Amino acid sequence: DQQVKQNSPSLSVQEGRISILNCDYTNSMFDYFLWYKKYPAEGPTFLISISSIKDKNEDGRFTVFLNKSAKHLSLHIVPSQPGDSAVYFCAASVKTSYDKVIFGPGTSLSVIP
Amino acid sequence: KAGVTQTPRYLIKTRGQQVTLSCSPISGHRSVSWYQQTPGQGLQFLFEYFSETQRNKGNFPGRFSGRQFSNSRSEMNVSTLELGDSALYLCASSLVGQGAYGYTFGSGTRLTVV
User: Fold this and answer.
1) How confident is the model at residue B39 (pLDDT cuts 50, 70, 90)?
2) Quick one: which of B24, B23, B36, B17 has its CA closest to B89?
3) What distance in Å separates the CA atoms of residue A63 and residue A41, rounded to the nearest whole number?
4) Fewer Cβ neighbours under 10 Å: the N or C end of chain B?
5) Cα–Cα distance measured from residue B90 to residue B105, given in angstroms and rounded to the nearest whole number
6) Do A98 and B42 touch (CB under 8 A)?
7) Mutation for A interface: B103, B104, B107, most A CBs within 10 A
8) Would you say residue B72 has pLDDT above 90?
9) Taken in order B23, A109, A60, B42, is the CA torsion positive or negative?
10) Mean pLDDT over residues B71-96, rounded?
11) Cβ contacts (< 8 Å) between A8 and chain B: which residues?
């Protein structure tokens, strides 16, 4: 039973264009959402997060949108750069259990120069 | 400051053997979580330790166990290895109650079971 889903295993985007990575969740108790980025042979690194009380959070080229009614979030990267090529994991947690974070299966993003 | 250190980086074991993986968290981080990463499954939560106590556990069989020492270092053990246990095992440390905000991951231990 996968509580956090990323239905696109891979995505290819031209350099300079927008990358949109999607994530769906099933547990309505989740109230904090995160995106992590992972390069090969390295551990994931935190990218951006959003609390359930917001519907948008921006950090430079990265913006996360949350649609609670649809239980959907998305990560927008504008403009995409070749260095953004990595696996992106969506993750979620419940406020009462901050130290149990559930990750999705990941989306491999390739940014083509 | 030093990051999260996982040892060894690579390991090859035979079916039926057991293995112990080690994780040294960032200084001051008292919570250590373990994840298994396999292709298509993403990061599957194994367990989380704080102050030498397991606080959260994922849906893995009892062959997977762990512990945490008084200096916050953690080990995980897998007994009676199966081919399907081949994966990247990641450890993440965080401050108390801030796993969602401040996970720092190690580079992982790549376990291959043959």
Assistant:
1) confident
2) B36
3) 26
4) N
5) 7
6) no
7) B103
8) yes
9) negative
10) 94
11) none
| Nearest CA distance, B7 vs chain A (angstrom) | 13
> Residues, chain A, total?
113
Nearest one of B59, B7, B73 to A102, comparing CA atoms:
B59
Identify whether the C-beta of residue A6 lies closer than 8 Å to the C-beta of residue A106: yes
- Give the residue carrying structure tokens 């796993």: B99
* Chosen from A99, A100, A102, A103 to mutate, greatest number of chain B CBs within 10 A: A99
Mean pLDDT of chain B: 91
In total, chain B counts a number of residues equal to 114
Q: Nearest CA to B29 among B85, B89, B71, B78?
A: B71
Query: Which pLDDT score is estimated for B103?
Result: 85
Region A45-65 average pLDDT: 95
Distance CA B89, CA B109 (A): 5
